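Notes from hallway chat w/ T.B., transcribed later so I don't forget. T.B. wanted the structure written out for a chain they're using in a teaching module, and asked if we could keep both sequence and structure tokens in one place. Agreed to drop them here.
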Amino acid sequence: MKSILIISFSSIQHDSRVTRQIEFLKAKHALTVAAYDNHQDSELEFFKLDKPRLGMTKKIITAFVLFLRMHEVSYELLYRQRGLKNYLGERKFDLIIANDVESLPIAFKLNAGKKILLDAHEYSPRQFEDKFIWRMLFQPLMYQICKKYISQTVAMTTIGRGIANEYKKQFKCNPIVLNNATWHNPIKASDVLPNKVRLIHHGGATVSRQLEIMIEMMSLLDDRFTLDLMLIVPETASTKTKGYIGYLKNLSKGDPRISFQPAVKGKDVVPFINKYDMGIILVPPINFNYANGLPNKLFEFIQAKLAVSIGPIPEIAEVVNQYDLGYVSEEFTAKSLAAKLMKISNADLIRFKQNATKGAIELSADKNASLLNQIVGTSLNL
């Protein structure tokens, strides 16, 4: 068996893409996983990465060196993982899988002269381009990392065509699309109830996603509709982000049809949301990644056998329209999607859920498991 180190600056229990990566590869390779929390698989070697904790003094210093374009110093301040280097000692892996661009420098430092595969979950150089401070301080660092390291990787994967094309255009690389499809789940669609449409949205509680639009949408829908929000706030989130759920709860206080559910682990999402009727994604494309999204939640909705209604994000809309899963609004507004939803009948909802059932096998992770093993095998000359 070949030795592979997987690095991810994330909480694996909420990072479905990394979890699937592990599941795809563990039968054929000896895996070591470095992340913020354990995969809870006793067969795997695991190292817990240090979460970034910047006090005010360190934030000021980091901002200063970022502004001066002192990229190596900036990276050390933001992503220093001395414990990992000490833990691994002089070990060399046959392959390191670096999840997202920010893990590339440490991957090359750990495996100098060896093989690195980049899995880009986002287009990192424009990840938070809607924020002026991020553009001024962090964007140059992300560009520099991409420019320096992507050309040295043995292979690169990413989530969709739009992001792959932008990496190819900017950094002369050839990313392979490995979408966010989750494993096929044979769970049956829940019954459609008379005069009831149970909506669900799950995912990160990030201010830039403007989740309040969905709360506004509920005021435009009749009493058939309920909306549950199951939101995650990373421990490393800013104070503003951590307060966002409180803001959303206050905003929805006057509407008993809106509820907030505790987050569940990634592996439990599909069985949990199966009791709903329709998954909702209404996130305005305020940055490049939102405009080119093809998120985990879309595929989780499908495996849970839900109908799907969304704002007009091209690659998501392509899936919804091709499989006739639900509605695509004309605009990213509460009014636009509400107008679509108000037309729904019980027969429509049954049809959409049946179509999700029909498409669930084709839109599952099984193809991706074969593809990633093929990419890894080619990289390792197997």
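Follow-up for T.B.: DSSP finds 18 helices and 13 strands in the chain. Might be a good example for the class.
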